[in-house]
Specification:
Shape: elongated
Order of helices and strands: HEHEEEEEHEEEEEE
Strand content: over 45%
Distance between the termini: 38 Å
Helix content: under 10%
Number of helices: 3
Structural class: mainly beta
Largest sheet: 8 strands, antiparallel, barrel
CATH architecture: Beta Barrel
Number of domains: 1
CATH topology: Porin
């Protein structure tokens, strides 16, 4: 818990003097690459880095440097491959047996991200879940590696919460009206004012929603995961034609690094 507090305080200090807000409702979404590092007792059972990817969506609150949203991520905790006879009665035909150890995470997010222009640091609070499961798949050794059968082992849910800090950098900002170009052509004739024909009172029309920018983002998340039952590499052993499972039970704390592309619209 001490590390979680320090992590949050340091991240807040980065932004405390840089609060800027937008009068628009800013929507951001993106795709990211994930690199996860199990912590404490979770690391005792999963001692390798997890690799995966995910997405996020956030909606800014007008006139405030805050946004609410959600994110989803998948990470592969490990995998094992082996070759086995198709059956006891057909021992001269072999199949590939692959076991994958998986973690999925889903979180609701509350973000503070002031609009500073080219680069925007942010901090984030998260609350959600971890879902861990193991799947063993039997595949044909033919050219198309067709799946023959699969089984899911030891699935488990755990509560998760944490904090994150990161930065978003603008790669390209679209000029205003960029996506409207080419919608109309100049005929050289003076166009009638549509307000005169319709009797419009001249009230301003709401601006259309359009893509505004593409950016690169990177952040670090410290996630406190609740207790869960799960398997890891080496947990499944085969002896005498029987499968034996060494099930772990621990917290699922993790540090996750995310790098990806973000898209901003308003």
């Amino acid at each position: 818990m001490d590390r979680l507090k320090v992590f949050g305080i340091v991240a807040l200090a980065v932004l405390v003097t840089a609060s800027a807000a937008s009068s628009k409702t800013v929507v951001r979404f993106g795709l990211n690459f994930d690199l996860g590092f199990p912590q404490d007792e979770f690391r005792d059972n999963v001692d390798n880095a997890a690799v995966g990817g995910g997405f996020f969506l956030s909606v800014g609150l007008p006139n405030m440097p805050f946004a609410i949203g959600a994110s989803g991520d998948y990470m592969l905790l490990g995998s094992e491959d082996r070759e086995a006879p198709f059956s006891h009665t057909v021992p001269d035909v072999f199949v590939d047996v692959t076991t994958k150890y998986n973690l999925a995470a889903g979180h609701l997010t509350f973000r503070m991200q002031p609009e500073l222009g080219f680069w925007e640091p942010y901090i984030e609070a998260l609350v959600g879940f971890h879902y861990l499961w193991t799947r063993t798949t039997v595949s044909d050794q033919g050219g198309d590696s067709e799946e023959i059968a699969s089984t899911k082992h030891c699935s488990s849910w755990a509560f998760s919460y944490g904090v994150a800090t990161g930065v978003m950098i603008t790669l390209y900002e679209f000029p205003e009206g960029f996506f409207d170009e080419g919608d109309s052509t100049d005929t050289g004739l003076e166009e009638d004012d549509p307000s005169e024909e319709t009797g419009s009172t001249g009230a301003e029309e709401e601006p259309e929603v359009e893509m505004r920018s593409i950016g690169l983002f990177a952040d670090v998340r410290y996630l406190k995961g609740g207790e869960a039952d799960y398997l890891s590499e080496g947990s499944i052993t085969i002896e005498g034609g029987q499968a034996y499972f060494d099930v772990h039970h621990s917290r699922t704390d993790m540090i996750a690094i995310r790098i990806g592309l973000s898209f901003t619209i308003w």
